[in-house]
């Protein structure tokens, strides 16, 4: 494993709860790419808190979300504005200091299941 790959694996594993660290996730990066991790807590009102971590190593952009006992790893996908991540049955769409969590099983026109503000 190269130093770059080990670094990214460490970043991803740091986001995992202790019980989930039994495995390892390694994502090879192109030569010269550097990785950055940003931890961002969100206040989502009645939905509860969402802990987000963003892993940026262009061209790779991932997010992990932890909420209500769930843990997701999401990939950045095309968005008209802001940053949009998809994983499992969820879409996490951020813009400025806000974010919306959508459950795609509720239909394309469904309202977000949580509207959140950064910095809780």
What is the CATH topology assignment? Lipocalin
Q: Give the N-to-C terminal Cα separation.
A: 37 Å
Main beta sheet: strand number and arrangement? Answer: 8 strands, antiparallel, barrel
- Strand order in the largest sheet: 1-2-3-4-5-6-7-8
Low-confidence stretches: 1-17
Looking at the overall shape, the CATH architecture is Beta Barrel
Specify the CATH class.
Answer: Mainly Beta
* Count of helical regions: 1
Mean pLDDT: 84
InterPro entries: MliC, MliC_sf
Protein name: Membrane-bound inhibitor of C-type lysozyme
Pfam family, one: MliC
Keywords: Lipoprotein, Membrane, Palmitate, Signal
In terms of topology, how is this protein built?
Layout: H1 3-15, E1 36-43, E2 49-57, E3 60-67, E4 70-77, E5 83-87, E6 90-95, E7 98-103, E8 114-118
Antiparallel strand pairs: 1-2, 1-8, 2-3, 3-4, 4-5, 5-6, 6-7, 7-8
Q: Which structural traits does this protein have?
A:
globular, 8-stranded antiparallel beta barrel, mainly beta, Lipocalin
